[in-house]
Specification:
about 150 residues, alpha+beta, two-stranded antiparallel ribbon, 2 helices, disordered N terminus
Length: about 150
């Protein structure tokens, strides 16, 4: 009897303590899916990032500005601002597993979806649409690799 009460209390507290908990399930995307689904595809270098709370102070978003080197699909000017969920604002950090994190001076090949209402540019398929461009230490040639750390 006492065990049933404890289990019921734990279940009730779990429901009350996490009413805003959310989960996301990402569909695995092939290269063809990224090409077809992206409004924009470009190679660019991250030049700056700014993180801030949303208006409701429920989420932190980071806006990273990219200097575009080459467009493969679409066009949005010499620079593009990509918005990602997560970052650090007012000393509080927020991380979204599977969401790409950009570092200034890193070069990327990005598949981008643009919000129809907001016009906000986001990486298609979260980390799936983010490919890092870097030099192969043996050959000195640029190579592209996909970083799926944080995606389970």
């Amino acid at each position: 009897m006492k065990a049933n009460r404890i289990i019921a209390l734990v279940l009730l507290l779990g429901c009350v303590a996490a009413p805003g908990a959310r989960a996301a399930t990402l569909r695995a995307m092939k290269l063809a899916d990224l090409v077809r689904g992206g409004d924009m595809i470009f190679v660019g270098t991250a030049v700056s990032s700014v993180s801030a709370w949303n208006a409701e102070r429920t989420r932190i978003y980071t806006r990273t500005t990219f200097q575009v080197e080459e467009y493969l699909k679409g066009y949005a000017g010499e620079t593009v601002v990509i918005e990602t969920l997560g970052g650090k604002a007012d000393g509080i950090g927020m991380r979204a597993p599977g969401m790409p994190v950009f570092r200034t001076r890193d070069k990327h090949l990005l598949f981008v979806k643009t919000g129809r209402v907001t016009g906000t540019h986001r990486v298609l398929g979260w980390a799936q649409g983010n490919f890092r461009v870097h030099k192969d230490p043996r050959t000195g040639r640029e190579v592209v690799s996909r970083d799926l750390s944080g995606v389970t």
